[in-house]
Structures are given as structure tokens and as C-alpha cells.
């Protein structure tokens, strides 16, 4: 009886703490610079999610100041453990393994297959700092079940504990291992293995394909890029200006993640946002790919101010020139590399700072003859697909977007 009472008290305490966390987060978020424009899907729900995430971050900082844990560690724990996920479908066999020393979770359909199956290596998002196998469990289960595909979710190393190229190295190691054992261990045709991911995971997917081309290795059969991060040369594209304060990804936060991925020197944040890390001759070169003429007119209707070419800071460039490497900014790769990219699926969201990265990459690939399937979520924001199965947090347009991804996978 005493144990039962204790459990009830703990449950009430947890619910009350979560309520306070949400209320505090909402109050803080309301007084921050967040903006939710007209046209965003279910803006009240997005405000609640944003408030909850802000509350988690604030609580993490309190715990850090108390010496209980780090803010980042607490945020990772919440994202991997507390967010609800779907039940294990009976159609799947799920195993936690390591491929070439990299943690992975394999989702293998149980239903018999007439021939070899497809395979998908999935690289999670989270700004190279957050996310993980557990946080993306529901999404990978859904893709595996609905498309009858063997999905491998890769738990690559994270920043700030590890810097570039550790994340990309892990993705390459896991992918190479799977390609070696795909047929014998999983009944997967190695020629029907794709790579994909969302946000930072989309960056890793595109960078991995770039590395495969450079090293003259057999390419994945496709790449699936969900609101991908694709360049660090220009943080003043229309989508960066129009959506700079739209949750769940602010303009400054994206640059913050990039800096932690590369070298951890966040003192360069304002320089990078202003473009002082790009020499004038390079900025003029990149305009061929990043110029406003490459964007359809409908994405330039909301307010933004075209930025004039500005003088760069040589010291900042020396510290940040690695950011312009195609393995970090795949959108800046040469035509000779990009023309060899595999068929590509790109998903973008209207109210996302990364919208134009995806659209510009789409145009470059199409201009070079690479087949591209594009799905644009007109009322979407960054991260919407992750809420496809989160109960009352679910967004119908996020679920619809994921179903389009599944449909693309079925064509491989």
C-alpha cells in the first residue's frame, strides 16, 4: 500500500512539474523574439511545443547550475526518453547493434519478400548536437513498416564532444558496413540501399554522397533530404530573413549549431551571420548557385532585404574556411560532383529558415540532370515531420509529408 501511495504521489508530482515547466516556458517564449506568421499549421499548438522546449532548456540550465547535470545532457535525455512514441508494430524485428563500432538500430520487416528488399540508412537531425536513435524510433519504425524496407538508424557521435568530421565518418562507416552485409544478413539488395535524414541528418546524407563520388565508390541508389542543412555561405537568403524567429529553428540557432559542428568557436556567430567569413571573390562565385534569380517568385513575396556584397574579415575566413568545403556545405560542391548524385527526394517547409537551401539544391541538381522529387509543406515549420505520431502534438501535414517519403522509398 505504501509503495502504491508513493507511486501516486510521484505521478502527481511529475504532472505538476510538467505543468509548471510548460507554463514557465510559454511565459518565457512569449517575451522572447519568437514569431509565428499567418499560414503556419495550428499556430497555437506550435506555440505550446515551443514553450515546452523553452521550459526544458530553462530547467536544464537550472539543473546545470545546481551541478546535477549539463543543460545539453538534460535536453538530450528528455528528447530520447520522455517524448511519447508509437508501440512496436508486430510486423517488425528490431535490434540494437553496432556497425563498424557505430551504434545502430535495425528495423527489419518480418513479412516474407518475393525478392531482395530495399535498405535505408537514416541519419537523425538535431543540429549535430541533439537527437538520437531513441528520439527517432517512431519515425524509423513507420518508414520500415509502411514501405517494407530494412531501415538502419545510425547513432553517430555528437557535438560538442566531437567535431567534424566525426559525425560524417560514423555515417560512412555504418553505411559501408551495411552495404557489405546487406544481402547475406538482411536479404537487402546492395544496389537498392538509400541514405537519408532530416536537418543535420540531411546534411550528412548529401555530404556522404559527395564523399562516395569523390572516392569513386558505388553510390547509394537515392538520397532523401528532409529540410536539409546544405550551406554555410549565406545566412541572409529570403527564408533565413522571413523565418528567422519562427520556431522550432531560429536563424542564429542554425549558425550556432554549425559552429559547434565545426570548431565550437561561438564568438564568431555575428561574423558568420553577417557573411564576414566569405571572401568577396567566393561570394560572387557562389551567387551563381545562391543568387535570388534561382528562387521561384513565390518564395520572395514575403519581406526581405537583398544583401549587398560586404568586405570579409581575413581572420574570420581563416577560422571558418572549412565551413565552405562541400563536405560541410554540399550545395557548394562542383558541377562535376553534383551531376553524379543519385536520384533525390527533397522536402521543404514554407516557414523554415532552411527552406531555400533545399530549393536551391533542387534547382542545381535538376539543372545537372539529376532526377529530383520535391514535396513542399506549405503550412510547415522546421521539425514538423518529427511530430507525425505524437498524440495531441501530431500535425496532419507532417504525417502527409512522411507518407510522401514512404511513397518515394517504395519506388526504389
From TrEMBL:
The chain crosses the membrane at residues 6-28. Residues 120-265, 307-385 form the Alpha/beta hydrolase fold-3 domain. Belongs to the 'GDXG' lipolytic enzyme family. This is ADCL4 protein. Keywords: Hydrolase, Membrane, Transmembrane, Transmembrane helix. It holds the Pfam family Abhydrolase_3. It comes from the Eukaryota. SUPFAM superfamilies: alpha/beta-Hydrolases.
